[in-house]
Structure to design on (226 residues):
């Protein structure tokens, strides 16, 4: 599983866009990039997944450059309820019984 | 659908006691997982089951055993609890070979070993 590096914490304000960049220099050909969100006292929740270029859903966007050695999760117009820990994971997500490796994540604090 | 359910929600054990954490999913997923999360840390995989009838060790299996009782249920057993096993335990399930691979997590079991 590819090792990932992401900032420990980030502060933002309501209404701003938050961008979290994750480095994964050793990403393999079959690896996908996935982001999870975790609120205090809850299990992680899937946000978005991508392989290359850009992926967008109702919650976030994921930007992946051509070399795939990094990725950026973009949260548009955050609110106080987006305060959480965000995890970047890289792995061959299509394999049965695939294991996820969670690093320390990025603690995002949204201020009023 | 309830998704992934875990029991109990909280548990306090004394050192040396044993207990079983229960997990069930109603999404007909083949794969199930047990993670632990220590304060301020990310999740670490204890054991996983790729499909009914199979189990494999994860990153931190020592001191634990698992049973994949059927497709729905995956239990985690602590035979002789130690203070180092104080943690929050999460169960998850997933299905491979889908358009989007996603693991669904339960609410967690908070275990304290004194």
């Amino acid at each position: 599983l590819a090792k990932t590096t992401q900032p420990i914490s980030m502060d933002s304000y309501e209404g701003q866009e938050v961008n979290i960049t994750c480095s994964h220099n050793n990403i393999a050909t079959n690896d996908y990039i996935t982001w999870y969100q975790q609120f205090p006292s809850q299990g992680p929740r899937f946000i978005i997944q991508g392989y290359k270029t850009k992926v967008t859903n109702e919650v976030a966007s994921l930007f992946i450059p051509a070399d795939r050695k990094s990725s950026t999760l973009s949260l548009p117009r955050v609110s106080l309820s987006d305060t959480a820990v965000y995890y970047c994971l890289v792995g061959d997500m299509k394999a049965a019984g695939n294991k996820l490796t969670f690093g320390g994540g990025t603690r995002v604090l949204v201020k009023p | 659908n309830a998704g992934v359910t875990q029991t109990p929600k909280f548990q306090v054990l004394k050192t040396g006691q044993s207990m079983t954490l229960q997990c069930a999913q109603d999404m007909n997923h083949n794969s199930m997982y047990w993670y632990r999360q220590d304060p301020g840390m990310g999740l670490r995989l204890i054991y996983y089951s790729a499909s009914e009838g199979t189990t494999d060790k994860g990153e931190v299996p020592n001191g634990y055993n698992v049973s994949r009782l059927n497709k729905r249920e995956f239990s985690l057993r602590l035979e002789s609890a130690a203070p180092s096993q104080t943690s929050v335990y999460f169960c998850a399930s997933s299905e491979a070979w889908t358009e989007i691979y996603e693991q669904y997590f339960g609410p967690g079991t908070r275990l304290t070993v004194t």
Notes: Chain B touches chain A at residues 4, 30-31, 33, 35, 41-45, 48-51, 54, 56, 58-59, 90, 92, 94, 96-97, 100-108 (CB under 8 Å).
